[in-house]
Fold each of these.
Amino acid sequence: MRFWAGLGRWAGVALVVLAASGVQAQDASPWTRGDKTRTRLISAGGLEGDHYRVGVEIVLNAQALTYWRTPGEAGVPPLLKFDSSKNFGSAEIKYPAPGRFLEGGAVAFGYRERVIFPIDVKPLDPGKPMTLDIDFHFAVCENICIPAEARLKLDLRPDAKRTAEAAQIDAFAAKVPKPLEGAVTTRFNMWGVRDAKKPTWRVRFPAAAANSEVFAEGPEGWYFDTRPAGDALYDIILAEKPSGAVLPIDGVVLTITNGQEAYETTTRLEAPPARP
């Protein structure tokens, strides 16, 4: 896997296993502490329709960062396992739009200071309490990259009142990219670059959205790098693809950020024009 292989670029890699948080029928689990991080599980309260709203919160020290679902040139995406939960049906994990950082000579996509991953959790039986037990794997990087694991556990009750943490979950849920099709402030044109060394597609934004950034995610086995290419321009570069696979490729997810706004759309990348 490209992301785990990318950890080889970092020196002094170590594994930190955080202490189990324990169960409590409250608004949040206790903090679990690791090297440069604090992590906990928070709840917005009782059932909202057919699901609970919770969040995995990470607070990072100094210039440390943790990764988005697609980490960039190196790193580890967050991984959440719910196998030990009770009365658990399903979970929808949401990822706030990332930042772009230069870390150890590589471009990383992720978060500094603090992030909450909002999660919508459906119980098997909505009338009964639920124990959410998450085995959370992530990485913390500041010059060196440290894989970490946190066990986060919390009781959820269908009749619980809205909590003080609900507003925090709401704030990070607002940073999750929205469908681009409903946006009017971010439009772009995209075309294949003829003379690129690797298959490359250039994205041009209007002047009003010149500070936009682009993050590209392909289907399994397809990986793309993105980088600025000039004023209001971004390049999407094919970095890896499955053996024998050929362009065009469907299902490429583009995440576009513009200040406080973030949008997401799915596109098809055609083979760029051949060199003359």
Amino acid sequence: MEAVVQIMRVVHLIDHWGLGGAQRMVNNLIGMDPVNDHRVISIFRHGARSWHAEPMFLVDSYWQLPWAFWRLRQVLRSWRPDLLQIHLHGSKLVAYLSGVTGVHRSVWSEHSAQEYLDIYHPFISRMIGGLTKRAALRVHTIVANSPSTADYVHREWGVAKHRIETLSFPVWPSSIAGSRTNHVADRSVVGFVGRLAHHKDPLAFVRMAQLVPRAQFWIVGGGPQTEAVVEAIAAAGLTDRVKMWGDRQDVYDLMSQMHVIVMPSRLETYGLVAREAFVLGVPVVGYAVDGLAEQLTDSPIGYAVEPGNVTELATMVTHVLDNPSPRSPIKMSDRDDIAPWLDFYVRMHAEQVS
């Protein structure tokens, strides 16, 4: 890798600073990059959690969103970033409507691709899709988290292939591997880790749990389907075998105590939870969708099943529990995952200087 002539000042713009995959990706990138100066701007303060970086919050509520447009322009004028890196749909739209992508050199990291179609009301989805396509023309580069995401961006948004960079979102091995590995449960633990939202399909996890009588089940995360999940657990008579942990800071500690993690996502452009599980040596069973399918097929402890097939999901989970293998965490240094990103920033800097 070429030597960096000078430090790049990278400003990350993100919807909110919570516990989601996009936030963990940014946190990992900042914590692992020894070269560049990273700062974070979070549009909203709600749901803020303590991570490696301390963000600047623009506003406290959706009602103050017009104020966020003005504040964003002022902050960027003061910070003068070499690169503005945009994350999540809300930030893309705020950056576009604020006009900052036309002033500052910008890239956006595409975390979700078509997920917004499954999350929002159809009218809202069409509006977001239309604005996203226009906004995509205003940024310098789109960073896709998997080949399937890159293909979607090119096919659906009409972004030229030479403007799409495919980079795996980094995990931070040293922050994960320090988790304890002692099992505190009295029987096998099958886990779900993620946002309780429609596209993650936590209700499929509950239906699967009914077909695996020998285990107990942990659900780590919160979201709009929390109430529906609680009701489904009660209706299935699983209250004594399913523990709802909610949003947790010690998520890696909990993951390390699971015997298998299940990812029944309808849409999953990357599958950061799967990569984090592999660092811990925890097997993952999931639907063969999008970037998650790539993660599962590339790992010896990844198991991909037919999307939407809860019975096959339960069968594979039972197989993994019946045939436990010694835990073999992925041997990787922090530098392994950050190196492609450092190369990317070097190229961005070289283009800017030239």
Amino acid sequence: MHDKELIVKNWLPRYTGTALEEFGKYILLTNFHNYVHKFSQIFGVPVRGLDRPMQTATNKDGLTIINFGIGSANAATIMDLLTAVKPEAALFLGKCGGIKKSTEIGHFILPIAAIRGEGTSNDYVPPEVPAMPSFKLHKFVSEKIVKAGVEYRTGVIYTTNRRVWEHDEVFRKKLTDLRVIGIDMETATLFSVGLVNEISRGALLLVSDVPMTPEGVKTEDSDKQVTAKFVDLHLNIGIEAMTDIGTKGEKIKHFHY
């Protein structure tokens, strides 16, 4: 198989245990298996791929959620594999570390762009190309956040391949100098590879820790608290936004240059 289309049509089912015809036209992406299981419980649908690297669930309205794993390499992989089903849009429900003092645990961030510090996206586009979401997708998401009566922030996310950095003063100063609002490991890659593959894409990030202070570094206990307090709302906003787009049928894909 030397043709990309043949490869992804074979590999998407192989990675997910889900037949191509079972995928919906709208996609929620996440790093966490509990999001997929919560989705399956809400809609009474099965979870596919429990024995595979990625798990999925799809409701009757044509909305699919996928747990693609952690990190920029996995983010690039799923955005490549999704070309097998040509979705109308993909929204990432991820967690991030809040960098600015104005970001608190439980806040939502709709990133206006992401800095490509991960390196993976360099295999797809030149370094000068900004990693950006699809504006009209974020418009739908922002409306749902406001409707839910919760606070959200906008700003630039720094995406890194480096998972353990909290101890590194030089790296921490770099984040401050870059004026980023948060840090994660996937957003810039999803935006960049989505651009290349002509997939409308966005991200709704939940601030799960504030790692610029020693007491704010994520632990198992603190992550459980974040999950208990905010994950249901995070998932529900994503579901409502993507369902609304599908119902209205509004075109959200960018024009070609």
Amino acid sequence: MKIGIIESKDFSAIALSELSKIAEVQLWNGKDLDHFIADKDCLFIRLSIEWNNAVLSKAKALKYLCSPTTGLNHIDLNYCESNEIQVISLKGETSFLNTIRATPEHTLGLIIALLRNYAHAFIQKAEDWNRDAFKGDEIYGNTIGIIGLGRVGAILADYLHQMGAFIRFYDPNVTHDIYPQSDSIQDLIDKSQIIVLCSSYDLATGSILSHEHLDAMQNKYFVNTARAELYDETYLVQLASKHHFKGLAIDVIQNEQGNRQHLQALLDNIHNSNLIVTPHIAGATHQSMPKTELYIAQKLTQLI
């Protein structure tokens, strides 16, 4: 059996050791992907490549595709199913994922950064020392609406609750004994000053935030560390360019493996608005990534 590691930089040494016990492991050097994957029975991937029909069709021997992620929109799942390629991921691994706190921590950080104007308040010149120019808002006493109270949303809600925020949530698949539930996304937006998108993305469901939902966020804070496919990204960029949001923080974009034209359109406005963009780093910590890679390696080992 041959296993290929596509993005090998900082890949878990323990996971590599475990994999080497069951197969020949090769690390991709970044050149001639088609040739590298042609004879691999298993591939470990991250997010730099879109694993669509055109790419996967070159992996003639592929039986297992391992992605230490919960979101799978970078993989053509229909192709995998049709070609009997088993996708091994973190999706549904609730008990293990409760020990992974990188994404809720990053989301909390983005909320604080927006409220306190960190995008501009981290000064670089002495003449920028002006505390009155950077007055912000507090989490304490603010109403924060969370769309999607799954693992990330629930952990984040507990963090914010401990900091004195009033929490509301929208999630038709969840009930909660402490936090009040909105029966619609519109109701949640109307009753919240800060809206956080933590919902998982389902290709069948697609977008969940309409233009009207985004319109209703005027002069509110909006944070997304989930997926950009959950709304019309073009429309979001248009609103951001008009300073529609009081603050906007995103960690995800659509088609991040592509030309990123929407990203550049956002960044063109970054100097004159309360806008923070991070390059999909919510789950990327020195603690979380090795743990998830080892977990996926162990799942693979149990299947073979």
